[in-house]
Design goal:
There is one protein chain. This protein is an alpha+beta fold and 79 residues long. 43% of the residues lie in helices and 20% in strands. The protein contains three helices and four strands. The chain has helices at 4-17, 26-32, 39-51; strands at residues 55-58, 61-64, 69-72, 75-78. The longest helix has 14 residues, at 4-17. The chain starts with a helix and ends with a strand.
Length: 79
C-alpha cells in the first residue's frame, strides 16, 4: 500500500504535468489540491520534484520541465 506522501506526490505530479498552463501559481495549486495535503508535506513534495529536475520553482510559479520519454536504441520508452 502506498504511503500518504507517495499518493500525494503522484497527485501533485499529475496535476502539474497535465496542466494546460506553462506556469502554475503555488497558491493556485494549493487551492485545487485536496485539503489532506498540509503545508509541510506540500513543501516536501515540491522540494522532491525540484531535486529530481521535474519542476522549476520561480517567482511566477511552478513549471513542469520533465520529459517523460527517453530515447534508447531508437525507441522511446516511458521513464
Amino acid at each position: 500500500m502506498k504511503s500518504s506522501f507517495q499518493s500525494n506526490l503522484v497527485l501533485v505530479e499529475n496535476m502539474l504535468n497535465n496542466s494546460g498552463n506553462s506556469v502554475v501559481g503555488i497558491s493556485e495549486l494549493k487551492r485545487i489540491l485536496p485539503n489532506q495535503i498540509d503545508g509541510n508535506e506540500f513543501g516536501r513534495i515540491l522540494s522532491y520534484l525540484e531535486g529530481r529536475n521535474k519542476i522549476v520553482i520561480a517567482s511566477r510559479g511552478i513549471t513542469w520541465i520533465f520529459n517523460s520519454f527517453y530515447k534508447t536504441g531508437g525507441q522511446y520508452n516511458f521513464v
